[in-house]
Amino acid sequence: MGLSRLLCAFLLAACCCCRRAAGVPGEAEQPEPELVEVEVGSTALLQCGPSRAQGNLSHVEWFAVHKEKPTLVFSVHQGRGQSAPGEYQHRLSLQDQGPTLALAHVTPHDERIFLCRGGHPRSQGHRIQLRVYKAPEEPSIQANTVGISVGRSEPEEVATCVGRNGYPLPQVVWYKNGRPLKEQKDRVLVQSSQTVESSGLYTLRSVLKAQLLKEDKDSRFYCELNYRLPSGSYMKESSKVTVPVFYPAEKVWLEVQPEGVLKEGDRVQIRCVADGNPPPHFSINKQNSSTMDMEEEPTDDDGVLVLEPARKEHSGWYECVGLDLDTMTSLSDRQELLVHGVPDVRVRPESPEGREGGSLNLTCEAESDDALEFQWLREKTGEVLEEGPELRLHHLNREAGGGYLCVVSVPHVPGLNSTRLVHVAVSGPPWVALKETRMRVRENAVLNLSCEASGHPRPTISWNVGGQASEQAQGAQSVLSVLTVLVTPELLQTGAECVASNPLGRNTTTIVLELDSNRTTGLTAFTVSPHTRTNHTSAEKKLPEPQSKGVVIAAVTVCLLLLALLGAVLYFLYKKGRLPCGRSGKQEMERSTSI
Questions:
Q1: In angstroms, rounded to a whole number, what is the distance separating the alpha carbons of residues 212 and 143?
Q2: Does pTM surpass 0.70?
Q3: How does pLDDT run across 144-183, given as a tens digit for each residue?
Q4: What are 349's strand-pairing partners?
Q5: Residue 3: enclosing H or E segment and its boundaries?
Q6: Cβ neighbourhood burial of 109 (10 Å; 0-12, 13-18, 19+)
Q7: What is the rounded CA–CA span in Å between residue 285 and residue 140?
Q8: What's the DSSP call for residue 309?
Q9: Contact predicate 247/150, CB 8 Å
Q10: Coil, strand or helix: which one is 432?
Q11: CB–CB of 237/203 below 8 Å?
């Protein structure tokens, strides 16, 4: 029994040796194939063995191996190539009439082993492994727009990454804030799937699922595709996306705009803010200073309480209440609001009045809980007269009368100030610009003489000559009088006198009229003012002058003489027969007489 087994083993070994010696294809150990790498769409160059060992291959057959089954695709006889019918019939050709086979328009389906055999029937041939590559398109990413709630027990979808038309299948890596994410049980999960297109290219779809925290509300996620080409390894990144993260509020607080010190007249906005997403339902309450109860205040559509303009009465305690409608829990916050009021300014005396040459004291008063600063200014010039609540005016004169401003401000509240205007009256006799003035006029002219005076009490004006006078006020302490007169010899001799008077005295201005010899005498009307600064001068107005009687008589005489001369000329022409109408008329008369 043992001898028979030994004999069988010997015979089996001998058969194997004989088969190898006989060169049976497939029985010898195959060497590693030569690697050729190309990109999709390019041309692959396949050489039948190393260049030093190719020699003169006059007869070569090329096979495409699919599932370990070789299929003849191209043959070379006497240096001429011939494609076999099939998928490679129109894409294979000899390169430069040599031993190199060119495969054009490479596709992913061409990734396989190609075998070439020389003319020897027992040749094992040369194997070439063709590797095909194609860079994927830019990856697209789609974030979860619905949002993820914090505290869920299972990971939820964060984003989906898609990489299209790549070969071979690229690798995907997910990132959060620039750091790669690694899968963690029940925390981070990556689910990837691929689709093979009809072109043989791959489309990769990767879904990132994770449990997010409150801190991830601003996290930026993106995916990266890693792939290889014949020239090396590369990667492409998608755009970065954020995902809505929902989490309950832990605190609420009041936010007041503008920040800092508030004053009356400001536009104040009060809103509730919370650290939750979505924010809770807000309401704003104000404490009633009488009952000390919190009462809800009306807000606009955005939940903002607007105080415009802010008043001192708006000061007090405000409360923000946030109600979580999911858990029905509420949070609140209180804050005191202080609106600084504009001081109420008063001046004593209210209607200040002083005598010319005397003194006058003005006192400015204001009530406020804040420290105040006082300043006195002259209204018409803006000049600062005094720093402090009191203003002392000495040696009063006419120019000291007018407006004075008391400005009260709160130093630590910029822009908070109040102003009170008071008019100071300086009592004294009327004031006129000049005691005497001269002007040139024409006899028989109609004049408008104007006279202006000022003083406190406001004076009245009278004239020493007859005429039509009109008077009008020019302010609290000034008056203007206009007198219309006819220039007569008597007026030229006496002139006109303007008298301004009040209970404290009187003052006069004399207007001396001088005849203007350069102008013809006639009846004219114009306005004359004694002083250009205090009186108004109107434009001269001429009236039609009466025609002289001698001129009229002379004109009538000349016209009569011209008419007599014209009649004599016409009669002379008629007698001479040089007037056609006259001649034809005479002939007609003679003809009638003869009949």
A1: 14
A2: no
A3: 999 999 988 899 999 999 999 999 999 999 999 999 999 9
A4: none
A5: helix 2-22
A6: exposed
A7: 49
A8: S
A9: yes
A10: coil
A11: no
